[in-house]
Amino acid sequence: MENQVEEIKKKLDIVEVINRLLPLRKRGRHYVANCPFHQEKTPSFIVSPELQIYKCFGCGKAGDVFSFIQEFNRIDFREALEEMAKVAGVKLLNTFEDSREEKNKKTLLKINEEVARFYHYMLTTHQLGKEAREYLEKREIDEKMIKTFQVGFCPNDSRLITAYLKKKNFTEEDLVKTGTFGWSQYGGKKLYDRFSGRLTFPLVDFRERILGFSGRVLPGAKAEQAKYINSPETELYHKSQMVYGLNLAKEAIRKELSVIVVEGEFDMISPFGTGIKNIVAIKGTAFTEEQLQLLRRYTDTLILALDSDFAGNNAAIKSIEMAEKLEFEIRVVNLVGKYKDPDEAIRDDPDG
C-alpha cells in the first residue's frame, strides 16, 4: 500500500489538484490563495510545486495532496486515497477493509443511485410520467436540463419501485434507512415511497453523491399536501449541509468569482438552462452556517436572488447577517416587485 501511495503522489501535481478546487495565483516560485480552512482577506495559503506541499501561514494547516483532500472534503485518508487513485489512474491493489458503518453508507448510496435511475426512467420514458413531462414542458424545462439534473417522477404505486429495488437484492430495512421509504400504518406492514405522485430532484453533494431527494407535487394535487418535501435526516442526508446544484456549478463559481444564490430547484434550473452556471439553491428560506462555509471554499462573493415574497425578504436579511460575519461580499438581486422568484423572471424574460 505504501508503494501505491507514493505512485499516486508521483502521478499527481498538487498545484493542479488544488487549483481544481481552489483558485490559485502564481507568486514567484509558489502559488497562493485565500485559505479554505479559515476566513481571511489577505492570502496566506501557499502551495509549493517543488516540494508538492501546501501550508497556511494563518491557521497553520499544512500537508501533502492527500491531507488537503481530507481537510477540504472532510473525509478520512482511505477515502482521499481512493479519490486520488481515480484521478491518477491508479488501480489500488490492496484496499482497506470497510467498517460496518462505511459498508452501510455505501449500500445507501447505491440504493439512492438506483432510485434516481428509476425515477428518471419513469419521467422520461414511461407512460406513467406523461403528466409530469407535460408539466415540465409548460415550465419550459427541456430534455437537456431534465437529464443534467436527473429530474424524475415517482409513480403513486410504491410497489413498482420497491419490487425493482428488491430485484437488486436490497433489503427492506436498507430501503427505509435511505429516508425515501417508510412503513405504512394501514393495511399491514407495507413499504411506501414518501415521494409518490411527485416530481423528484436528486440531492447531489459536491462530491457527486446522491444523498437524498426532494419532491414537488403536480398541479391538481390535494390541498393538504405540502408543495415540496425533502428526505428526512439520515446517515447520508443533512439538510443544513446541502447546497443544491453545487456539483454542477462549482467550476463556474470559481471562474466567475461569485455565486448566485436562489431558494428552490426550479429557481436554479431555469437560469442554468439559459447559460447562468454560477448558481445554486439553498433549499429553504435562510442559509445555515455549514452552507456558507461550503460556498466560502469557492468564492467570497454572494449574489442573493431569493424569492420576492415576504418570506424571501426575511430570508435575505438573515442570510446577509450571517454571511457578513463570515466576511462575504454581498450583493442582492432586485426582482423589481414584478416577479415572485428567479424561475418566473427567467421564463418571462430570458434575455433580461
Automatic annotation (TrEMBL):
<keyword id="KW-0639">Primosome</keyword>
<dbReference type="InterPro" id="IPR036977">
    <property type="entry name" value="DNA_primase_Znf_CHC2"/>
</dbReference>
<dbReference type="GO" id="GO:0003899">
    <property type="term" value="F:DNA-directed RNA polymerase activity"/>
</dbReference>
<dbReference type="GO" id="GO:0005737">
    <property type="term" value="C:cytoplasm"/>
</dbReference>
<keyword id="KW-0238">DNA-binding</keyword>
<dbReference type="GO" id="GO:0006269">
    <property type="term" value="P:DNA replication, synthesis of primer"/>
</dbReference>
<keyword id="KW-0460">Magnesium</keyword>
<dbReference type="InterPro" id="IPR002694">
    <property type="entry name" value="Znf_CHC2"/>
</dbReference>
<keyword id="KW-0548">Nucleotidyltransferase</keyword>
<dbReference type="InterPro" id="IPR006295">
    <property type="entry name" value="DNA_primase_DnaG"/>
</dbReference>
<dbReference type="InterPro" id="IPR034151">
    <property type="entry name" value="TOPRIM_DnaG_bac"/>
</dbReference>
<protein>
    <submittedName>
        <fullName>DNA primase</fullName>
    </submittedName>
</protein>
<dbReference type="GO" id="GO:0008270">
    <property type="term" value="F:zinc ion binding"/>
</dbReference>
<dbReference type="GO" id="GO:0003677">
    <property type="term" value="F:DNA binding"/>
</dbReference>
<keyword id="KW-0479">Metal-binding</keyword>
<keyword id="KW-0862">Zinc</keyword>
<keyword id="KW-0808">Transferase</keyword>
<dbReference type="GO" id="GO:1990077">
    <property type="term" value="C:primosome complex"/>
</dbReference>
<keyword id="KW-0240">DNA-directed RNA polymerase</keyword>
<keyword id="KW-0863">Zinc-finger</keyword>
<dbReference type="InterPro" id="IPR013264">
    <property type="entry name" value="DNAG_N"/>
</dbReference>
<keyword id="KW-0804">Transcription</keyword>
<dbReference type="Pfam" id="PF13155">
    <property type="entry name" value="Toprim_2"/>
</dbReference>
<dbReference type="InterPro" id="IPR006171">
    <property type="entry name" value="TOPRIM_dom"/>
</dbReference>
<dbReference type="Pfam" id="PF01807">
    <property type="entry name" value="Zn_ribbon_DnaG"/>
</dbReference>
<dbReference type="InterPro" id="IPR050219">
    <property type="entry name" value="DnaG_primase"/>
</dbReference>
<dbReference type="InterPro" id="IPR037068">
    <property type="entry name" value="DNA_primase_core_N_sf"/>
</dbReference>
<keyword id="KW-0235">DNA replication</keyword>
<dbReference type="GO" id="GO:0000428">
    <property type="term" value="C:DNA-directed RNA polymerase complex"/>
</dbReference>
<feature type="domain" description="Toprim">
    <location>
        <begin position="257"/>
        <end position="338"/>
    </location>
</feature>
<dbReference type="Pfam" id="PF08275">
    <property type="entry name" value="DNAG_N"/>
</dbReference>
